[in-house]
Amino acid sequence: MKKTFFLLSLSALLFQSALAQDTIAIKPLKKVLELVIPREGGANAASVAWHPVLKRYYAAMAGNIEFFIGAYSTTGKLLTKTDQETLFDVRGLWYNPNTKTLQMNGYGTYGWAEYKLGPNGAPASVKILEEGSFQPDEQSVGAYDPINKLVYFFNEDGNIEKYNALTREYKEQLDLTLGYSAQEAEDEIEVDNSIYIDDYNTTTVVYTGIKKAELGLLNTVNREIELYDLETGSITRKFSLPESAPVETALNFAYANGIFWLFDTEARIWKGYK
């Protein structure tokens, strides 16, 4: 009797342990910074980038070459003029340490480009790297990986498309298991991303540089940011957002300098969470 009880107890403990290992702890995020857009123009924001040399954030609106882009201090103070224009219909925006420039991908066939910055750090002109469509969709927001020299895009099937950052050529696709950890994905007979794709911000993936949690997606239904392993395509970390955090189903989501950014379309403020 005692032996049977011991075996049953041991089995229960092992089962609970297995469940605990499969469950990903959700870490709450708190707002740490704001970047205020100072003027009208554009309903949606494109992206936020961190310039590690100038120690500045760059925040760009999406939709028109005359819309606003600004440089901000580490405390969120606007350092450039309020009439500064993007000069390019920006979607993804990133700092490339290999070229030491701010680069971006644009709407539709705008292609990829980079900024030449003026003495005050404001974008003075745009150099087109290549014109054309080098992304899955017109609104796709690119995320740059400086280690592998790739740019990642989230496509309509819920997977990641990789493009060579130097040639702009499509390289390959990384299949994600949306909403699943590696163990949960193994336990499922078939994971169908089409069932869950509408739960996410469908234009944007972010690159964090965190080992085994390199790619980030915004789950707008659960109000969580999920991080995925670049090798397995499965969730490894989750972050919950405050109830007051703005979440949009397209654009308005970024990652820069260790901070997740969400754009409040009504207040016209990028809100940073960490």
Mind explaining what this structure looks like?
- The chain is mostly beta strands and 274 residues long.
- It has two helices and 20 strands.
- The protein has a five-stranded mixed beta sheet, with no helix packed on it. A four-stranded antiparallel beta sheet has the order 2-20-19-18, with no helix packed on it.
- Residues 1-22 have low confidence and may be disordered.
What's the topology here?
Layout: H1 2-22, E1 26-28, E2 31-36, E3 44-51, E4 56-62, E5 69-72, E6 90-96, E7 101-106, E8 112-117, E9 123-130, E10 143-145, E11 150-154, E12 160-164, E13 170-174, H2 182-187, E14 206-207, E15 215-219, E16 224-228, E17 235-240, E18 253-256, E19 259-264, E20 269-273
Parallel strand pairs: 1-17
Antiparallel strand pairs: 2-20, 3-4, 4-5, 6-7, 7-8, 8-9, 10-11, 11-12, 12-13, 14-15, 15-16, 16-17, 18-19, 19-20
Kindly summarize this structure in a few lines.
This protein has 274 residues and is mainly beta. The protein is built from two helices and 20 strands. The chain has a single domain, classed as 6 Propeller (Neuraminidase), CATH 2.120.10.
Strand tally: 20
Provide the spatial order of strands within the biggest beta sheet. Answer: 1-17-16-15-14
What is the approximate shape? Answer: globular
Strand-pairing-aware structural class: mainly beta
Gyration radius over CA: 20 Å
Mean pLDDT, all residues: 91
